[in-house]
Every structure is written in structure tokens, then in C-alpha cells.
Amino acid sequence: MPTVVVVGSQWGDEGKGKITDYLALEADVVVRYQGGPNAGHTVVVNDEVFQLHLLPSGILYPEKLSVIGNGVVVDPEVLVDEIQRLQARGRDTGGLRISARAHLIMPYHRILDALQEESMGERKIGTTLKGVGPAYMDKSARVGIRVGDLLEPDVFTQRLESNLRDKNRVFKYVYGKQTLDAQPIIESYLQAGKFLKPYITDTAVLVNKAIRQGKKVLFEGAQGTLLDLDHGTYPYVTSSHPVAGGACIGAGVGPTKIDEIIGVVKAYTSRVGDGPFPTELLDETGDWIRETGHEYGVTTGRPRRIGWLDLMMINYAAVLNGLTGIALTRLDVLCGLDKVKVAYAYKRDGQVITEFPASFKELAECEPVYEEFSGWPEIDPAAKSLDDLHPNARRFVEFISHKTGLEPAIVSLGRGREESLTLRDLFQ
Ligand code: IMP
User: Fold this and answer.
1) How confident is the model at residue 196 (pLDDT cuts 50, 70, 90)?
2) What does the pLDDT look like over 379-408, one tens digit per residue?
3) Which atom of ligand 1 is nearest the CA belonging to 299?
4) Pocket of ligand 1 contains residue 412 by CB under 6 Å
């Protein structure tokens, strides 16, 4: 029985929330495998808008298991707040499971995130300031504190005190800032631990059991391929592995257990944070798309940078993730534009480049080569096949398939769950 990984093929914000929510309808288990509260998924159900940061999209289906895997970094304050907000809206959160092995974001991680960004000046990454990078740094340095430690007050206290001694030295002597007291942190984290206790477990055991039993398991990536720590536009990346391989590590399943890998592709490109962006639109068209598509960060409220769809990037993502299909989103946002462009190659120093450059300096020097399409006036949200789309929109979709060698499995036609065109049943 298939397992499906959903990954972002660009710089995040491709509409993964909508696609995972849509696929979650069929899945039995939905697993988040990396990232933390830096993510922001918007899901619209019967005109009700839900903005999720740490909770997997499956949480909106009470009968399903929604798993926060070991690869995620959890800020307990954010998570408790998110759970309580859903409960206040009458949602049942009983299906949630949190990996005891997931690492915690501590208050000093959030502070360090801001201090590091500030000290980098113009070279700053443009992080979401949620403490995600510093939490993964501690994980790699083997001094991280894990979700399971919240259930063992002695262990938690000892680790926190030892870490805080080091962090306070950094605050005081490197940044000349105030130090933090251990006691209030211990109290609030252990309090959150009590609230989260019923949800904390060994989620790898749970997910592997579900796969063995033939259940449908959906792995939900946060951010996108170009923000991957190894494969993204380093150093303008996040500190985890959004690529499909990250699902294996971040959920504790073997690579042989993954059947389908779907790359979510937005009909244009957006990015928050700094770094090179070859197809960026710094003109009225970019502003128009930003406003029409409400392209403002769910987590930070920052306006997103906007550009045309870049197939060099999508082809790079296709290889790195081993994509078996794509889910195309936000065709509807482009309705009404006279012309729509798609980059399918780059030129640098007059030479055509066919591979996505590893160096961000090279990427910054690339000029996109565009195919231009006539726009489409509308998208029928009830379309049942590609033939029901306006011919110009259909040409646009066919061009993407032709240049990437990947067929769309899903085309999203609007924000709502029901406004989706399924071209292939991924769980069959
Ligand atoms: P961090 O993940 O907060 O450390 O930020 C690192 C980079 O990833 C910055 O450019 C952020 O804007 C970007 N980023 C992090 N999470 C998201 C997301 O969910 N969508 C889009 N960009 C993100």
C-alpha cells in the first residue's frame, strides 16, 4: 500500500498545506518530518481558515494519526498554543503523536537566532527568528534537549542548567547581553511537558507499524528543496532537510518504504529571506501577483519576493527528490495577466547553462531564458480534466510536463479542498 512524500520544489510556500490536506483525506497517517515553527501552512476547510505551524495537516481529520516526527524541532510554547487554539474551535486533537526523539527549541535558541542575524548585518540569512537554526546546531553538537526529556524532570533540569551555563557565557561575553535564569524556563517547559505527555511516544515504531499493516502514510515536508541545508541555495537555507530523503531520517523509515514522491510546484516562484533569485520580478507584475496571491509569510507576515516559474529549479528538485509526479498549485492566481512567462534555461556570460549552479554567486549571475504564454482569463474550480481548462492554461501545464518529464498528479484550482483536480490516484 503506497506511502507518499509531499515536498516543496521551490523555496517553500508552494501550497504544500493545501496539497497535504487534500491527500490527507485519503491517508491514515500524516507525518511531519523536519523543520519547526518556521513553517506556516494555510488550510481552508468549508471557508474556515486554519494556519498551522507545527501541527501536521492531518490534524484537521480527527480519525487520523498526525505525527510530529523525530526530525522536527518543537517549540513547546508554540505547539501547546496551537493545540489549544484548535481545541477552542471544537477540533479533536486526539490523533496527535509527537516523537520523544524530536528536539526542543529553547528560549535561548530564539534569542541566538536574532543575535546571529543581527551580527551578520548585510550577510544575514533572513531567518524566521523562531530559533530553528540554533536548535538544529545544538542537535548536531549533541547538546540538544529532546521532547522525551520533558517527561523526566531530573534529566531536563540537568541538561538545561548545563546548556544555559554555556549560552549565558555567549550572551554575556560575545554579545554583551543579559543572561537567562534557569528556573522560569524549567517551570514553563515542565508544565508544557505535562500538557503534551499524552501525545509523546516513539513515533518511528508507530509509523513503521502502520506501513507494515498496509495503511496509507503521507509524509509532509515543510519549506522546500531550495531551502535544504545540503542541496539548497546555501547559505540562504534552513537548517534541516526538506528533500524527500529527509522523510526517511526525520520519520525513521527506510528508503525502500517510500512509493511516491510528489513535488509541489507553484505556477510562479516566491521566496522569503535573502539570496539570489534569477526570475525575480521587481516590477508591477510582481506586486500584482503578491497582492492577488496574498503572498505574505504565514509565520512572519513578511512580503514574499515574487518571480516567474523557474523550470531549471524544478528539474533540479525533480532529480534531488526523485520525484514521481508533481502537484501544480495557484494557476488561478495568474488569471487575468496578459502574458505569463516560464524560465526553462539560464544564460551566464552568454553561455546556456543546463544544470542548476551550486554556487550562489554563479546563480546570482544567471539570466533566465523564458518561454512566453498568453494569459488565461479564468480557471474553472470545478474542472474535471485538463481539457476543461482554458487552452492557454492547458498549454502552460503541458509545457511544464514537457520540460520536466513529469505529469501532474494534482492540479489545484483554488484555495478550498474541493477545488482540486486529481489526475492520478496516488494511494492506489
Ligand atoms: P529559518 O528556517 O527560520 O532558519 O530561516 C532560514 C531561511 O528559510 C530563511 O530564508 C527563511 O525565510 C526560510 N524559511 C524558513 N521556513 C520557511 C517556510 O516555511 N517558507 C518559506 N521560507 C521559509
Assistant:
1) very high
2) 989 899 999 999 999 999 999 999 999 999
3) 19
4) no
- Domains held by the chain: number: 2
Question: Which residues, in sequence order, are bridge partners of residue 52?
Answer: 41
CA distance linking residue 328 with residue 409, whole number of Å? 8
**Nearest C-alpha to atom 11 of ligand 1 is from which residue?**
127
The set of catalytic residues is 13, 41
DSSP per-residue string spanning 328-365: EE-GGGGTT-SEEEEEEEEEETTEEE-S--SSHHHHHH
Q: What is the Å distance from ligand 1's center to 114 Cα? A: 14
Q: What is the 3-state secondary structure (H, E, C) of 296-319?
A: ECCCCCCECEEEEEEHHHHHHHHH
- What single DSSP character describes residue 173? I
* Structural domain harbouring 170: 103-199
3-state SS, residue 321: helix
Domain end residue (candidates: 159, 181, 199): 199
Domain boundary among 199, 221, 240: 199
> C-alpha grid cell for residue 133?
537554526
Of 132, 223, 299, the residue with max ligand 1 atoms within 8 A of its CB, to mutate for a pocket test, comes to 223
Query: For residue 369, what is the enclosing H or E element?
Result: strand 367-374
Distance 73 CA to ligand 1 centre (A): 14
- Tell me, using a 6 A CB cutoff, whether residue 240 lines ligand 1: no
State the distance from the centre of ligand 1 to the C-alpha of 223, rounded, in angstroms.
7
Say how far apart CA 225 and CA 245 lie, in whole Å. Answer: 11
Give the global pTM.
0.95
Q: What's the rounded Cα separation, in Å, for the pair 85 and 89?
A: 6
Please indicate, yes or no, whether residues 254 and 226 belong to a single structural domain of this protein: yes
Beta pairing class for 268-271 and 351-353: unpaired
Q: Which of 135, 145, 147, 47 is nearest to 97 (CA)?
A: 147
Q: How far is the CA of 383 from the centre of ligand 1 (A)?
A: 33
- The CB of 13 under 6 Å from ligand 1? The reply is yes
Whether residues 335 and 257 share a domain: the answer is yes
**Residue linked to cell 515574487:** 306
Residue with CA at minimum distance from ligand 1 atom 19:
39
C-beta 132 within 6 A of ligand 1: yes
User: 154-166, pLDDT tens digit by residue?
Assistant: 999 999 999 999 9
